[in-house]
Amino acid sequence: MKIFVGGSRSISHLDSIALSHLERAIAHGHTFLIGDANGVDKAAQAYLYNKEYPYVEIYYSGLIFRNNIGSWTARQIETKSDKVGLDYYTAKDRIMAKEADAGLMIWDGKSAGTLMNVIRMIQMTKSVILVNVNLVKSFHIRTQKDIEEIITDIKQSIKLKVDRQLRRESFQHRIVRKDTLGELPLLRR
How many CA atoms lie within 13 A of 184 on its CB side? Predict the structure, then answer.
């Protein structure tokens, strides 16, 4: 089984909950698909390197990866954008979400990118373990309803950022919509 591991760039150390999920996947011999960013990507790489775990693939956009601590197989993902930015780096996330069987996302409660990865995976009917480090809790996300329950307390600005990215990626569903009540959480078919 291939597990897409990702999360917030603001998180530089994995908490015990995230580590327990990694350990379970290691015990089953799963392969980890990890990006090359600082934050969770780098922290997960460091943990797996210290465990001498061999089943890791690093995905990156651009000409050279930013982090590959274990010198694992690195896979370059072509992007349609020459400009370094959101679309440039999310190209690898879209591929990892597509190629993974499940996800493990470690979230600071603010990162729109992490939330986008969860949404991408549930849109492909893949389950995700979402570790919210602020709540010191993990959630098993399988459906749009699951994600709606998680996002009820996040800032509207984050919801709007995710909605803009959903539109960019041509998703049919939005995380927010305007109606007579203003901005409301929405992720329904």
Answer: 8
**pTM for the predicted model, two decimal places:** 0.84
Bridge-based pairing of strands 137-141 and 31-35 is unpaired
N-terminal to C-terminal alpha carbon distance within the chain: 28
Q: How far apart are CA 120 and CA 129, in angstroms?
A: 13
| CATH 3.40.50.450 for domain 2-143 | yes
Amino acid 168: pLDDT: 73
Residues 6+ apart with CB under 8 A from 92: 35, 36, 59, 60, 61, 77
Length of the chain: 189
Which residues in the chain show pLDDT less than 70?
81-88, 169-189
User: Looking up tokens 């190209």, which residue turns up?
Assistant: 91
Whole-angstrom Cα Rg for the chain: 16
Please answer whether residues 175 and 185 qualify as being in contact, where contact means their C-beta atoms are separated by less than 8 angstroms. Answer: yes
Domains of the chain, residue spans: 2-143
Q: What is the pLDDT of residue 176?
A: 45
**Residue 62 identity (one-letter amino acid):** G
